[in-house]
Amino acid sequence: MLTHLHIQNYALITRLDINFSEGFSVLTGETGAGKSIILGALALVLGARADSKAITDGEDKCIIEATFKGLRDNGQGTQEIIIRRELYTNGKSRSFVDDSVVTLQELKVLANRLIDIHSQHANLLIENVDFQLGIVDAMASNAPLMADYTEKYEAYLAAQEQLNRLQSLARKSRQDADYIQFRFKQLDEANLQAGELEELEQEQYALSHAEEIRTALETAVEALTNENVGALEVLRSCRLEQVAPELQERIESARIELQDIAEEAERKLNRVEMDPERLQWVEERIDTLNTLLHKFSLETIDDLIKERDQLAEQVQRLDSFDFDIEQAEKELASRRQVLTQAAGRLTKSRQAVVPSISGKLTEGLTQLGVPHAKIEIPVTATPDFTPTGCDEVQILFAANLNQTLRPVSEVASGGEISRLMLCIKALIASTKGLPTIIFDEIDTGVSGNIATRMAMIMREMAASRQIIAITHLPQIAALGDHQYKVYKADNSTRTETHIRLLNDEERVAEIATMLSGNQATEAALTTAKQLLGYK
User: Fold this and answer.
1) Cα 266 from Cα 413, distance rounded (Å)
2) Which end of the chain is more exposed for a tag (fewer CB within 10 A), N or C?
């Protein structure tokens, strides 16, 4: 349950600290006193969207901290959880659980296990078919069935996507078949070899400059091997063994190296060919390869080879699509069958529980002053699978005798919707196991004895969990175990919102004021005491 709330620099609140107790607590105060501000701060610390405009004027950041106490995982003792949210003027915020930084999503997951806030706008949820289906699933304890269905639904969608992809590829491939085969044939007939272009360009240079190369090699061989003036012959004539043996050794080493150079130059000379036909073929081959590179907008022969191989795969797949599609259709049919079974289990569980839900909601509305209320919750099939199964649920409502059942959002008044929502919350509270529920003016549209009955329902709910109600009705305020007053007060610089726990005398005065207006009359004070005595 929520045990403490700390708010600092949020809207009209400079600093606020308030402790909450178990049981049924009520928050009262004049319109505009700041009840919604406190609730907004609590929603923020639980993961609601942050707005830097909420920071008190002139401050750099606001801090909201909520302390919860609940059962440990082993069910023994209590565990305190402190959640803190810090919001900065630049729009950024940080969230902490027990001083450890958490993501906003992690914060929301935790908050959903700790508290449920029924805001003034939550009554609009009754118009939402997903919300109505959620009521049925909560009462049917369908979480395991829903998890099983979700797993099979995702597998079904994946199989469907695979089939659609294959069918799309097959259509495109068949449309492009001639073009794909033409491109593949061009590359396949080219007999591409990795590194070929570089080798051909070297050969082209050698063939086109054969005469120059031959002349250069002949000159080198002659300079080295001439019997009279060649470098080798000159070196052989050197005899320095006696006078400078170290020089003679180096000369001999140089002679051996030049001898090797001369032999290699002669071998190259013998390989130099004047072959115009080969040169023509090489140039044509280079031209062919460059043409293919340009046509396919690629840079290297390796790229062309890769493109050829990919086209070969596409050509091969043209004949295999029918088989792949047939296999994908079988897989989809199999997935559909198991999904249908999972959806059927969900449908059966929902159909089993809706009579009980209808009966309990009708009974609750009768207690809340709608004696002729009638509710039915038909479970109808959807045209196809949905993320929540194959069912559509819609609450049908009639408030009067012989009135046709119609969707609740079309025929229920504001007060009737408020009473229905309270009955729904009371019905599903135990299934969710939430330790704290906050009602923000769920009593909209009701008064008098009906308000008292609504308060009694909230008191019953508070026997097993913490209930906090924000209300303007004295009948509800009087039945709370604890009453907090929210009010505004001026200081030297600004108007601020405050909250305090009322003692017994203050409660009498506050409820009397709620009954009669600003001035609590004697009659109002007497009535307030009588209302407080109902507890």
Assistant:
1) 110
2) C
